[in-house]
Design brief:
By secondary structure, the protein is α+β, with helices and mostly antiparallel strands. It has a domain of about 100 residues: 60s Ribosomal Protein L30, Chain: A. Helices cover about 60% and strands about 10% of the residues. Strands 1-4-2-3 form a 4-stranded mixed β-sheet. Strand 2, helix 4 and strand 3 form a beta-alpha-beta unit. The longest helix has about 55 residues. The chain is rod-shaped. About 20% of the residues are buried.
Length: about 190
Amino acid sequence: MAKTLGKCFILFLAISSLLFAVSCAKPKVKPEPSVVEEAITEEMPAVSKQMEEMKKMEEERRLAEEQLREQKLAEREREAELRERFVNENIHFEFDKSTLLPEAKEILKEKAEWLSIHRDVIVTMEGHCDERGTNEYNLALGDRRAESAKRFLIDLGISVSRLTTVSYGEERPLDPRHNEEAWAKNRRAHFVID
């Protein structure tokens, strides 16, 4: 029994020592932040705000570039449309005449305006006739029609060096039918950009 009592006493001492050691251990104290840590903590909102501003500026730049691309695309499409109109808008003449009609003069004024903007463009004016008359007569009439359009453009300030003429007479009808409606379409000057 003395042995058992000794063992219990030793066990009691061991447990007491252990409890004392644990209770006397220094508690873990959160260290005070250093000056650098305080400065970083104080600057975090400012850095975060700067990052947001930079993202906003980048998004605005991206949107501006996208708008510019869209604007340039619209300008190219508009320019292509005007170029197509220049080529596809013919002027027409009365039967057996090469004098310019008022509507033809208005179209030529628009063409002169376009040509004055596009100074590198060279144009060939094709003179065309309906099928009535001889080939030789229609070639001469087609030439007079192209030349009258050329003279009008020169009078509006377009350089003669940018304008050439050719006559096809009745060789290239726009409308192959044999009636007044078709003949009216075929009496024309057509413009080709070289």
